Amino acid sequence: MQTTKVPGKKVKKVMMFTLSTCIWCKKTKKLINDLGVEYEYCDMDLLEGEEREEAKRELVKWNPSLSFPTIVIDDKTVVKGFQPEEIKEKLGV
């Protein structure tokens, strides 16, 4: 699965499933950028074929409703949607 890594402080492992056109995804990326935290993201709508199917299978594990953004923290905690306070709390920042 193709991801983009954004440099920053390594406070936790952060993986986001996003859509390139989603305003809430853009707001979430901006929030995490502003916090200076390192994260990876996958713009699902830019993937094709098997790569898209692989990403979808991974996302379903964390969020069966396939809503965006889905933020996975340390491979155990999930935040669904643009939830600034919850994201800050889960990241410990």
Instruction: Return the structural class.
Output: alpha+beta
- The CATH class is identified as Alpha Beta
Order of helices and strands: EEHEHEEH
Largest sheet: 5 strands, mixed
What is the percentage of strand-forming residues?
A: 15-25%
CATH superfamily: Glutaredoxin
| Spatial separation of the terminal alpha carbons | 28 Å
Tell me the CATH topology.
Glutaredoxin
Low-pLDDT parts are none
Q: Total helix count? A: 3
| Rg estimate, integer Å | 12 Å
Mean pLDDT across every amino acid position: 96
Structure description:
By secondary structure, this protein is α+β, with helices and mostly antiparallel strands. The chain has a single domain, classed as Glutaredoxin, CATH 3.40.30. Helices cover about 40% and strands about 25% of the residues. It contains three helices and five strands, in the order E-E-H-E-H-E-E-H. A five-stranded mixed sheet has the order 1-3-2-4-5, sandwiched between helices. The mean pLDDT is about 95.
Short description:
The chain is an alpha+beta fold and 93 residues long.
Which terms summarize this structure?
single chain; 93 residues; alpha+beta; Glutaredoxin; five-stranded mixed β-sheet; 38% helix
Give the helix/strand layout.
Layout: E1 4-6, E2 14-18, H1 23-35, E3 39-43, H2 49-62, E4 70-73, E5 77-80, H3 84-91
Parallel strand pairs: 2-3
Antiparallel strand pairs: 1-3, 2-4, 4-5
